[in-house]
Amino acid sequence: MALVEMNATFSITSVSDEFVAKLVARKAAVGTSFVEMFEEEDRTRHHHGFVGAATLEGGAAGGAAADNGASSEAEELKDFFNKAPIALHWLSATGKILWANDRELEVLGYSREEYIGADIMSFCPDSRDGVLEIFKELGTGNTIRDVPIRFRTKVGNIKHLLIDSNVNYKSDGTFNHTRCFIRDDTGRILKECRSEVAATAARKLAEGKERFSSKLLHALTALSGLVASVAKAMKFDDGYVVKPVPTSFSLSSLIGEYRNIETARHEVVVQEIGFDASLVVIADAIMIRTVLNELVAHADGRSPVSARVVLSVERIAGGKGGGGAGGGGKFEFRVTDSGEELDESRVEKVFHNYWLGDADVLGGGDGERADLPRLSEELSCDEEAPGLRLNVAFNYVQCLDSILRVASDGSSTTFNFVLDLETSSNGSQGPKREAEEKHHWNKITPSSLPPISPRTSTQSFVGSLYNSDSRHILIVEDNTICQKMCKKIVTGLGHTVDTADNGAIAVEKATAREINIYDLVLMDLRMPVMDGITAAKEIHKKFPELPIVALSAEEGESTKDAALAVMATFMSKPTKADRVGKVIQEYARNPLGRTDAGKCLPKLGA
């Protein structure tokens, strides 16, 4: 079907009802492109000598008058192309947009006045070379198919598209205009980005664990104490937690055990501040001892030979058991060393990943550091196991309902945690627990998971990419137990998950690519390195349309108001699977633009 120029407007040759029916039938056929249909109709028209034209856009100046039947056919064709579900446009030889249908304007968000007559280059500025290459190929008389191009929408987003095109020539053989058909390629790009992220994460995970395992094999003969730590770290990594078994014991006696450690390279100075030596508290002594063992061993391996390690316990506030110097309350446990300054943000990563090495903590990156001594010397002074020891300590502290923190300057590093300890009412110590009672491991299992409906195949062309009901969720949570619990809930609901241990990592993951790969973010508020509200603001600078849901155990009105100023909604912790499912269904972004997409976010303030 030839397209001819008439006073700067364009018309479609009048055709028969039979051809209209053929267009509709062939459009629905798999593998048949509009370009092929136009080429075939050009040949058909030339063979039968069809004449006459009816305008598609605007009025036609001149030409033979069409009868009522031809005008009706032309109107049907006009409606067919303007309302077609595939985006269409024509370009002049200089790249001016001569005509575009409703679907193209809808995809890019421009009005007809803003789009028609503009230079195509103004809508794809970073693809200039690609556009020139397309015109060069079309100028040779060739047809292009499935050529990727990037357009900028009215709101400033980048739209990934595929173009099919050929050229309509005038009767004298000169260039008239292009016939371009574009379709959204977001689904394919999104799938590739997500696959790339997953593959990169899997590769780094495998490399980190392989590197750790290799070094551990060399260490086992010299550092037998690591074996127990390895078992604990792997237990936590597999989704287990330790259930505390409270008994009454002397806090002073427990920390006094560290005054004379035969295996330590350094003197351990023990300080008791703000409580009586006779104080008997009720808690899990074995779990507290495990944390202190790991932290003291880590500090002992890091400090210079002439330095010392300081273990201090200070009563900082009243709590369970009442006041008075001999009463219960909040106790801060601190272990300080004199080793090389640690990168606190990297330590947070090591808390969550036991296989990371010393260089990951010191800032060398990827577990490698050129100036480390020989492997045997590294292992003998425990430098290659900070990830292991700190990970175990971090997880045990969480099981004790607290959080392990780190502060490092040029001369020392301190790890600390706070426990609210209850005192024994009669001041007597309970029976000592046997060794076999040490670990009460429980598997993390979310309660009341709703039944998951079988996934049904999608009939649209995007169905082959991924299930239409599945969303890709980023969970941001520094508490590993809560993070794993939330991950089990979300994956149990049929969605895919990525995790971040603090706000800074969340911002890095969410904004690392030009295209947004997440459909929803579940964001904790109180986290080290960067809090959830700050992280949400940073993410929205690049992707304002990404829904972020606040997660917090704090339910005060001020906390909720601060969160809701930048996030879509607020969920209290702990939460149940049915609540999480409803929030995902209501707020999760639809990456392919279906009409059931989640709710819009509140606008950020200045």
UniProtKB/TrEMBL annotation:
Superkingdom, taxonomy of origin: Eukaryota
Keywords attached to this entry: Phosphoprotein, Two-component regulatory system
Organism: Ectocarpus siliculosus
Region of interest (Disordered), residue spans: 423-456
Signal peptide span: none
CDD domains membership: PAS (cd00130), REC_hyHK_CKI1_RcsC-like (cd17546)
BP GO terms, sorted: phosphorelay signal transduction system
Domain annotation Response regulatory: ranges: 472-588
Protein name: N/a
PTM annotation (4-aspartylphosphate): residues: D524
InterPro entries cross-referenced by the UniProt entry: CheY-like_superfamily (IPR011006), HATPase_C_sf (IPR036890), PAS (IPR000014), PAS-like_dom_sf (IPR035965), Sig_transdc_resp-reg_receiver (IPR001789)
Pfam families cross-referenced by the UniProt entry: PAS_9, Response_reg
Residue ranges of domain PAS in the record: 73-142
